[in-house]
Automatic annotation (TrEMBL):
This is Glycoside hydrolase. Keywords: Glycosidase, Hydrolase. Belongs to the glycosyl hydrolase 28 family. It comes from Alteromonas gracilis. Gene3D superfamilies: Single-stranded right-handed beta-helix, Pectin lyase-like (2.160.20.10). The keyword Hydrolase applies.
Length: 488
């Protein structure tokens, strides 16, 4: 194979700001010198060494929070608050925060929290092994409303179950359990009609009515302070740090969420490590970083009712107004079980995504709909660039790789998505309904997609490939047959 011209394939990385840091470290050598003599050069011009350097640089830039050694045990505060766990916990947080920060310990036991937990700067909320915090399902407990995002739209809404606003150096750690207590008789019916519904007919009171009004307010440019609803059926996410810096979520088990499970928004330096997410309700996404910079998601297990990991950056006019992409993201050593998608971009992606590295992950379940997925449309749009996936093993999945410009509203807007430098390599799939579902627009085809060293051992149906331009293929096999670009 002739040596590829890597100048164009690296252009977005070189513009991203990461390259200047690599240059200072001595890693960003001139292209001809860097490629010469490298047997591991891929079809895209990226070598193993370059990939490692780019992903490792992001990890090195992520600053984990550090805390003072002082600590307080919530049990020591219960007597003063008539055994009310929430009040005792916030008293402990207040005391430690006033002293300069440290660890607030939730000891072994079953604790009912009648409302949200609000974290402060320099606080490590540590849930010990054997401790379970069970959250109330009374919506009024999550008032007063707070500044939040719901499906990528800003509003004054129910407080997330665990929330922090404009704080720094915060953590949720330990081997304990966070249980949102959501079920078919409290939060979940607010979804309304849902394919897995167990609550019978479409409830009269559901999110559609609030959501439609919120979407119209967003399009009209209404101030966020005016986006307040007396009849609010927008379920709160479980954990949402908002405009925070140096965030760590590590070790905990998260169960039965009203809505998305882990949803950092507009945060910088986020680490989600060794977290077990299990929730099968509607919109039970596992981890959804939105408009965040420098994110590491590692060693996590996702068994969810919606996307396992979904990268987001705001919806429609709000995403374009805030205009902050989700950038510099590393996903590695994670396991994806049930879910709508394993590693997903979208669908609230109007602010764009850049510099994603997903690697060394395993995915398998009869209930896993898609492995690698990009979902958007011409209302949501989004500029997606330098997205990289490698060394991913998929057992059973419905569709292995999906890029869909026709999600929900389809081609109904004026903001067609733009894809550049998307690479998937070293992907092995045991069994899929379809290997690929790639659907672009005739006026704006999918572009910049490279598929390198991919094996789909068993695919039951033909791939769907519509309106794809400049597709690069190298060593792609489906049912033991090479995928020939000329036949597409």
């Amino acid at each position: 194979m002739a040596q590829p011209n890597s100048t164009s394939t690296r252009r977005h990385f070189l513009k991203s700001g990461l390259a200047s840091t690599l240059a200072a470290s001595g890693m960003a050598l001139s292209v001809p010198t860097f490629l010469s003599g490298c047997a591991s050069v891929t079809e895209t011009g990226r070598t193993q060494r370059q990939w490692d350097a780019e992903a490792n640089l992001i990890k090195e830039m992520i600053k984990r929070p550090t805390f003072a050694k002082r600590k307080a045990n919530v049990a020591d505060f219960l007597k003063d608050y008539n055994s009310d766990f929430k009040q005792a916990l916030h008293a402990a947080i207040d005391q430690v925060a006033r002293q300069g920060g440290g660890k607030v310990v939730v000891p072994k036991g079953d604790w009912l929290c009648k409302g949200p937990i609000h974290l402060q700067s320099n606080i490590n909320l540590h849930i010990e092994s054997g401790a379970t915090i069970r959250f109330s399902t009374n919506p009024d407990d999550y008032k007063p409303y707070v500044f939040t995002r719901w499906e990528g739209m800003e509003l004054m809404g129910y407080s997330p179950l665990i929330y922090a606003f404009e704080q720094s150096n915060i953590a949720i750690t330990g081997k304990g359990t966070l249980d949102g207590s959501a079920a078919k008789d409290n939060w979940w019916p607010w979804k309304g009609k849902w394919k897995a519904s167990t609550w019978g007919d479409d409830p009269v009171e559901n999110q559609k009515y609030t959501r439609d009004t919120l979407q119209q307010m967003v399009e009209n440019g209404a101030p966020v302070s005016d986006r307040v609803f007396e009849n609010n059926y927008l379920r709160p996410p479980f954990i949402q740090p908002y405009r925070c810096e140096n965030v760590l979520i590590e070790g905990v088990t998260i169960l039965r969420s009203p809505f998305w499970l882990v949803n950092p928004v507009l945060c910088k330096n986020v680490t989600v490590n060794d977290v077990y997410c299990k929730s099968f309700g509607p919109n039970s996404d596992g981890c959804d970083p939105e408009s965040c910079t420098n994110v590491l998601i590692s060693n996590c297990t996702f068994d969810t009712g919606d996307d396992c990991i979904a990268i987001k950056s705001g919806r429609n006019a709000d995403g374009r107004r805030v205009k902050v992409p989700c950038s510099n993201i590393v996903i590695e050593h994670c396991e994806m079980k049930a879910g709508h998608g394993g590693v997903v971009i979208g669908s609230e992606i109007s602010g764009g995504v850049e510099n994603l590295y997903a690697q060394y992950c395993t995915m398998s379940s009869p209930d896993l709909d898609r492995g690698i997925r990009i979902k958007t449309n011409s209302i949501r749009g989004g500029h997606l660039k330098n997205l990289n996936y490698r060394n991913i093993d998929i057992g059973t999945v419905k569709n292995a790789v999906v890029v869909n410009f026709f999600y929900e509203e389809g081609d109904a807007g004026n903001f067609p998505p733009l894809l550049e430098d998307i690479t998937i390599e070293n992907l092995n799939v045991a069994s899929a309904n379809r290997a690929f579902v790639l659907r672009g627009y005739d006026h704006t085809p999918i572009s910049g997609l490279t598929l390198n060293n991919i094996t789909i051992k068993r695919a039951l149906k033909d791939a769907v490939i519509e309106n794809v331009a400049h597709l690069k293929l190298n060593n792609v096999f489906i049912n033991s047959q090479p995928l020939n670009k000329n036949e597409l």
